[in-house]
Amino acid sequence: MSGLEQLYQQIIMDHSKSPHGYGLAEGDVTSHQRNPVCGDEVTLALRWSADGTRVEEVAWEGSGCSISQASASLFATLAAEDADAGNAWTPDDLQAFIDEFREALRSRGQIPLDEERFGDAAALSGVSKFVARVKCAMLAWVAAEDLLTRRAAQS
Ligand code: ZN
User: Fold this and answer.
1) What is the C-alpha to C-alpha distance for residues 117 and 85, in angstroms, rounded to an integer?
2) Pick from 3, 14, 33, 118: most CB atoms within 10 A?
3) How confident is the model at residue 1 (pLDDT cuts 50, 70, 90)?
4) CB neighbours of 38 closer than 8 A, spacing ≥ 6?
5) Ligand 1 centre from 8 Cα, in Å?
6) Which residues surround ligand 1, an ion (CB under 5 A)?
7) What is the mean pLDDT of residues 141-147?
8) How confident is residue 3, by pLDDT bands cut at 50, 70 and 90?
9) How many angstroms is it from 51 CA to the middle of ligand 1?
10) pLDDT at 153 over 80
C-alpha cells in the first residue's frame, strides 16, 4: 500500500469513528437512502441560508459500514469548510460536486477526486477500485441529490 493510500485509509477510519455533521433536528427536510447490499442507511438534510440560496450545513444520521458513514461525514465536512471559507454552495455548486464525485467513484480507479476541490473527501477516491463498495460511498451524495431534485420540483 502506498503512503497516500495509507493516509486515505486513516482519514476514512477517523471519520467513521468520529463522524462530522452527525445529528438531525426537528424541522430538517431529510432524504433517507438505503444500500440493501451492505445494510447501510443514511438520512441526510441540507440546511439552507435564510434566503434559501446556499447550503450552510449538511447534517445526517445513519448506520452501516465505515465507508458509507465516513463518506457522509466527509461530505458534511466539505460543505462546512466551503461555507466557512465564504463559498457556501449554491444548488448548482452542489450538483457539480455530486456529478464529479459520481464520475470519479464509477471510474474504477481511473479518475481520482481532485484534492483541491474535495479536501479530505478525496480519500474516497480509492473506493472506485472496489465496484461493490461504490454504492456505500455514494449513499450520502445520492441523498443530497434527492433533496436537490425535490427542491427544484417545488419551485
Ligand atoms: Zn457499505
Assistant:
1) 13
2) 33
3) confident
4) 64, 65, 68, 133, 135, 136
5) 17
6) 38, 40, 65, 68, 136
7) 98
8) confident
9) 36
10) yes
Task: Please tell me the distance between residue 135's alpha carbon and the centre of ligand 1 in angstroms.
Answer: 7
Query: How many angstroms separate the CA atoms of 110 and 106, rounded?
Result: 9
pTM, two decimals, is 0.96
Interval between CA 65 and ligand 1 midpoint (Å): 4
Distance (Å) from CA 40 to ligand 1 centroid: 5
SS3 label, residue 118: helix
Å from CA of 100 to ligand 1 middle: 20
Strands (E), 21-154: 30-35, 40-48, 55-63
Q: Kindly report the number of other CB atoms within 10 A of residue 99's CB atom.
A: 12
DSSP 8-state class, residue 132? G
**pLDDT tens per residue, range 59-107:** 999 999 999 999 999 999 999 999 999 999 999 999 999 999 999 999 9
Residue 55 has pLDDT above 80, yes or no: yes
C-alpha cell read off for 88: 457556501
> Ligand 1 mean position to 66 CA, how many Å?
7
